[in-house]
Design goal:
- The chain is an alpha+beta fold.
- It has one domain: Nonspecific Lipid-transfer Protein, Chain A, CATH 3.30.1050.
- The chain is 37% helix and 23% strand.
- The chain has a 5-stranded mixed beta sheet.
- 30% of the residues are buried.
Amino acid sequence: MDMQAATKVLRERVGSDSGLGTTLKLDCGSEGKVLIDGTANPNTVSNHDGDAACTIALSLDTLGRLILRELEPTTAFMMGKIKVSGDMSVALKLQNLL
């Protein structure tokens, strides 16, 4: 899955109100970033880089596996496939989107 496809799926899952209530960035390094703004009305999902309450660093492959539900977020965290910085409670809300 490429970044454009991942962003499209996340945009569909977030919809107009994700219930996130804050900002979350998925940082895939040189492959790109996805910024979910749960404070905007309606919520937005973009590939812009910006400040977020929580940033999750992961590979594009891991993001794709999470989106396809081939990998559980908690398992990915325990395996060291994702690194969380910022507000951990926001990262826990991501499980509802994935």
